[in-house]
Amino acid sequence: MNFLKTVDAKLFHTEIPAKPMGKYAHFITIRVTESYPLFQTDGELNKARVRAGIQSKETISRLALFKRKQSTPERLTGRELLRNYQIGDWEKCDYNVDFSKTTPDCILYGFAIGDSGSEKSKVVVDTAYSITPFDDSHLNFTLNAPFENGTMSRQGEVTSRINSQDHILPQVFFPSIVTLKDPTEAGFLYVFNNILRTRHYGAQTTRTGRVRNELIGVVFADGEIVSNLLWTQKIYDLMSSAKPKPQINPPDPLDEDEVRTAATRAIIELMAQEYISHTDLIDESFTPLLNEVKSITSDETKLKAMLNQANAESSAYAKKYVLKQAEKGKKGKKAAVTEPV
Question: What span, in angstroms and rounded, lies between the C-alpha atoms of 285 and 158?
Answer without folding.
Answer: 61
